[in-house]
Specification:
This protein has two domains: 4-121, NAD(P)-binding Rossmann-like Domain (Rossmann fold, 3-Layer(aba) Sandwich); 130-290, 2-Layer Sandwich (Dihydrodipicolinate Reductase, domain 2). Helix content is 30%, strand content 22%. The protein contains nine helices and 16 strands. The protein has a nine-stranded mixed sheet with strand order 15-14-13-12-6-11-10-7-16. A five-stranded parallel sheet has the order 2-1-3-4-5, sandwiched between helices. Strands 8-9 form a two-stranded antiparallel sheet. Helix 4 packs parallel to helix 5 (102-115) and helix 5 packs antiparallel against helix 9 (322-341). It is globular and about 60 Å long.
């Protein structure tokens, strides 16, 4: 099978699963080179995953052998790295979020369109077996017309385990920008685009104490909302709510519930590719687990990259698109604006719903 050469920028914590899947699982991807500001991290990744070249980002941009730049840098660098790669004529797939500001994300989407390039963005978990099975049930009418949805991402924060948790409490961090993309991307894939939103947020604890080993005892000044509640009116008329928090010690609430006129679905954790899909109907029998009907139930990060590579080779629209990521970014940014202005926000983006995955695809193919 023909392979697409990929240059990976950023060899930090998330890179390992991408390297593993892009070199060992997906049949149409070839990791041509890697780069990192820390040369030792790039060297370690190259040795572990048999990557033949260590390059600078600038050298990648000038190498005609590289078709896709995979941007695994920290969120604050997403805009500059993506813009430079698109400007150099490279297709780009970036980790979430697309960037930290909606206007910058819109600029990237326009630039890709002007240059005829693919722009993609994580998460690609919505392409996995769990959420694709949910979509098949919804599209097949098993829960009837959609009434609404609820999503909850509630945790006590990252300072107890993350070695460098400061970013999560600075502007551009917080639970919505950190974990919201998984939940919002899933909702948009399952229900379609959002028409209007409103939101509120709080800083519950103005100061945090790091208890992870590396920086134990250091204090963090919290500069972004850590408990955010949002409401969404989807274009199909359904109403949704999402709550994300770093201020909740424990929760028994579901990840996502979708409500239909014939019954509800409980989805798996949208930060995973598999998990249990639970369906209930009006016959009173309660929830029952539905077998997964698609592949990729294991950690398949890079699936969106492989889908993009397929499009590079044969055309079509990549599913984890920049347009979808921009829609999610608009929601996240304007939750905050709605609270400040005490007003609803009418969405300006309206991405097309992507094609469902092929349930008959063999492992390694899309």
């Amino acid at each position: 099978m023909e392979k697409v050469n990929i240059g990976v920028v950023g060899c930090g914590n998330i890179s390992g699963i991408y390297f593993q899947n892009l070199t060992k699982v997906f049949l149409n991807t070839n990791v041509y080179a890697c780069a990192d500001l820390n040369p030792e991290r790039a060297k370690a990744a190259a040795e572990k995953y048999a990557i033949p070249r260590i390059m600078t980002f600038e050298d990648m941009l000038g190498d005609d052998n590289i078709s896709i730049i995979l941007n695994l840098t920290t969120p604050g660098a997403h805009y500059s790295v993506c813009k430079a790669a698109l400007s150099a004529g490279k297709h780009v797939y970036t980790e979430k979020p697309l960037c930290l500001r909606f206007d910058e994300g819109a600029e990237l989407v326009r630039l890709a369109e002007e240059k005829g390039l693919y722009l993609g963005c994580a998460p690609d978990t919505f392409l996995g077996a769990g959420l694709q099975t949910c979509r098949k049930l919804i599209d097949g009418g098993f829960i009837g017309d959609i009434v609404g949805a609820s999503a909850f991402m509630l945790c006590p924060g990252h300072e107890s385990w993350h070695p460098d948790p400061e970013f999560y409490y600075k502007p551009g961090g917080g639970p919505m920008f950190d974990m919201g993309p998984y939940y919002l991307t899933a909702l948009v894939d399952l229900l379609g685009g959002v028409k209007e939103i409103c939101g509120m947020g709080n800083i519950t604890f103005p100061e945090r104490t790091i208890t992870s080993e590396k920086k134990f005892g250091e204090k963090i000044k919290v500069e972004t909302d850590t408990h955010i509640a949002g409401m969404l009116r989807f274009r199909n008329g359904a109403l949704g709510t999402i709550t994300t928090s770093f201020d909740v010690a424990k929760s028994a609430l579901p990840n996502i519930e979708i409500y239909g006129t014939r019954g509800p679905i409980l989805t798996p954790d949208p930060n995973t590719f598999g998990g249990s899909v639970m369906l209930a109907t009006r016959d009173g029998s309660g929830f029952r687990e539905i077998p997964l009907s698609f592949g990729y139930s294991e950690n398949s990060r890079g699936l969106g990259v492989s889908d993009m590579a397929k499009c590079v080779l044969s055309g079509g629209d990549n599913r984890a698109s920049g347009a979808r990521a921009l829609h999610v970014l608009e929601i996240m940014e304007f939750f905050r604006t709605c609270d400040a202005e005490k007003a609803y926000h009418a969405m300006t983006t309206n991405p097309e719903r992507s094609a469902p995955m092929n349930p008959g695809a063999i492992k390694g193919e899309v």
